[in-house]
Specification:
6 helices; 11 strands; globular
C-alpha cells in the first residue's frame, strides 16, 4: 500500500559561504516534501583559486542538507568552470551526504546516469541534460563534463531586404536527441515518475 508523496523543485542555485542562511525561510517548506530536487548551477572545490575566492568550496553546500534537498541536477554550462576537480569534489560531497545527483560525471556514461529516489512505495527518477554551450563542458566517453543535447541554430538571410533581421531556426541535433530519448525509454518502466531537467 502506497502512502502519499509530494515533489518540490527549485532552480539554479549558486551557494557560497557568505550565504549560510539562504534557506532559512524556504527550508521549512522544502522539508515538507518527500522528494526535493534542486539544480546546482556551479560546481564546488577547494582545489581551484577562483572557486576559493568566490566561496564555492564544498562546505558552502551544507545548506542543501539543512533545506532537505534530496537530489540535485548538475548538467549546466558552468559544470567545468573549475576543471575535473570541480565535478569530482562536488560529486564526492553529495555522495558523502546521501544527496542523489544526475547530469554530470567523470565521463559521458556517468553523466547520463539517472538519479533515483524512493519513498512510501514511489520511485522517482531524474535525468539532467544541458543544451547550451560551451561544448567544452560536455562529457565524452573519456572526459568529464555534463550530459547534453546539442542544439543547432541556422540563420537565414532575406537577400531582398538588406539589413533586415534573419529568420532563425533552432532544433535539436538528432543523434544526441535520440540518446536522451533512449535514456528516457530505458528508464521509464522502472519508475513511477520521471523528471527530465
Amino acid at each position: 500500500m502506497r502512502g502519499k508523496a509530494s515533489l518540490a523543485a527549485i532552480g539554479d542555485l549558486i551557494l557560497s559561504r557568505q550565504q549560510p542562511h539562504l534557506f532559512r525561510f524556504i527550508g521549512p517548506v522544502l522539508r515538507q516534501h518527500e522528494f526535493t530536487v534542486a539544480h546546482l548551477e556551479v560546481v564546488y572545490t577547494a582545489r581551484h583559486p577562483e572557486a576559493v575566492r568566490l566561496g564555492r568550496t564544498p562546505d558552502a553546500l551544507e545548506p542543501l542538507v539543512e533545506a532537505g534537498i534530496k537530489l540535485v541536477t548538475l548538467a549546466g554550462n558552468h559544470v567545468m568552470d573549475y576543471g575535473p576537480e570541480g565535478i569530482e569534489d562536488t560529486v564526492r560531497w553529495l555522495d558523502e551526504r546521501g544527496i542523489a545527483h544526475a547530469g554530470a560525471g567523470c565521463d559521458l556514461e556517468e553523466a547520463r546516469r539517472p538519479a533515483i529516489l524512493e519513498h512510501a512505495g514511489y520511485r522517482v527518477a531524474v535525468l539532467s541534460y544541458n543544451c547550451v554551450g560551451p561544448k567544452e563542458t560536455w562529457a565524452r566517453h573519456n572526459r568529464p563534463g555534463c550530459a547534453y543535447v546539442r542544439i543547432i541554430t541556422h540563420y537565414e538571410l532575406d537577400h531582398a531586404t538588406p539589413g533586415g533581421p534573419p529568420e532563425v531556426f533552432t532544433w535539436a541535433e538528432p543523434r544526441t536527441l535520440q540518446q536522451m530519448c533512449d535514456d528516457i525509454q530505458r528508464l521509464r518502466p522502472q519508475c513511477d515518475l520521471l523528471v527530465v531537467a
